[in-house]
C-alpha cells in the first residue's frame, strides 16, 4: 500500500488564490495591438488569448479596464493579435511593462490591414474585427472575428509559466 500525501485544506477563493492556481497553467504569449483614433498605436502582452470558433473564425482575450490600452481597445473597430516566438521574450516584456515606449525602437512594426499595427517577426498574426466587449469583473472579454492574417513565421512559441517566460522543450 502506497501512502498518499494528505491534501492541503482548500483555501477560500480570492484574487491571490486565482493568481496562484494560474501560475501553474502554462499559456502562450501574445501581443494585442490597436490603432487609436489619433493614429497612435497601443498594445499589451496577453496570455488570455483563446480560439473561440472556426466558423466564423472568432478569438477572445481579456483586458483590464485599468490598462493604459483599454480606452483605445474599448473604441477600436479592429485589433491585431500576434503570437510570439521564444526569441521574443524582450518584446513580450516591453509590451507588459507599464509606461514603456512599446512601439519605439527596437520594436519593428507597420500599419497592416484596417490600419492595425502589425508586429514584424512574430510566429503568426491576425487582424480581427471586434464583435463584442463582455464585462467580466475589472476586465472585459473582447470577442473578435479574424479578417486577415499570416501564419508563416518561423520558430517555436513563447510560453508563460510560474511568472516567467519559457520555451518548449523537446
Automatic annotation (TrEMBL):
It is an enzyme of class 1 (oxidoreductase). Pfam families: Flavin_Reduct. It comes from the Bacteria. Its EC number is 1.-.-.-. Keywords: Oxidoreductase. The keyword Metal-binding does not apply. Residues 22-167 form the Flavin reductase like domain. GO terms for molecular function: oxidoreductase activity. This is Flavin reductase family protein. It comes from Streptomyces cremeus.
